[in-house]
Amino acid sequence: MSLVFQRVMAALCAAMVLASPGAVRAQAVPEGLIVVYGALSPTREGDVDRREQIYFSIPADTADRVFVRLFDPEIFGHDDFTYGGPADSETTFRVFGGEGAFTAADRPEVVADRARAPRERPAFPVTGPGQVLMERVYGSDRSSDGRWVTLGAVRARQGEQVGDRAHFRIDVEGTKGNDGNGFSIGVSRARDRDRAPEGLEIFAYQPTIRWTAAGTATRVGFTGTGGPYTVQSFDAANGDLSVVTDYADLPVAVSGQDFWTVDRIETDDTNLALSLSGGFESL
Ligand SMILES: [Ca+2]
Ligand SMILES: [Ca+2]
What we know:
A hairpin with a 4-residue loop joins strand 17 and strand 18. Strands 2, 4, 7, 8, 10, 11, 13, 15, 17, 18 and 20 form an 11-stranded antiparallel beta sheet that branches. Strands 3, 5, 6, 9 and 12 form a 5-stranded antiparallel beta sheet that branches. A 4-stranded antiparallel beta sheet has the order 14-1-16-19, with no helix packed on it. Helices cover about 0% and strands about 45% of the residues. It starts with a strand and ends in a 6-residue tail after the last strand. It has strands at about 5-10, 15-20, 35, 50-60, 65-70, 80, 90-95, 130-140, 150-155, 160, 165-175, 180-190, 200-205, 210, 220-225, 230-235, 240-245, 250, 260-265, 270-275.
């Protein structure tokens, strides 16, 4: 079986909801939804910064610890894109809490239409802002291939306190190699099962997402405060990109390989999703 996966880096003016129980829209988040490429990969693979930043928050009065879980964190077999063998690749996962972990973290930059990606290699490791609560490096060990594993546990008081919420940031770096690491992130009350804590929110501002070129479109929800919305996409490889509202699918101009495309969507709806489908890889 060969599935063609596409990747796109999409930035919106609102946070994209990657998984959030009882949130804007009931949707299954596919496993291996997110992808990070190794530092030595070319940006035409669709990953400008070879880094993913994923945020989660829980109510500050959450008494029990919560577990950070990873799906397929290694680079081997299922869900990964390898070039000449994955043995040289490593991905580093760090969970940040404390002051600045959320509020001082990078937000997506506004890019010009048809802008290219910077050519310099990413500057690793990223050690801030905030305090590193846990860190783990995954290589090509097959024991986590196609499976959920537990990275560790945090308590609400370790997060950055903003109002009545405790915020955390998960930084994922493609530390070594040129392979693509598909993975997903979950937060659970249980160590070995998916039991979302009450009030959990997981989101990212600029995820690199993959989707299958054939079959059902992949939808990623995002919350908004009313349009217009600016959608920046990178390397969507001529796929079909649209913003789905309650009433209509609004097509978005889609990026070609290795450059940014910027489009504006006019809608007053706030209950939205980005839909990704089709396309081809023109390597
Ligand atoms: Ca993986
Ligand atoms: Ca794998």
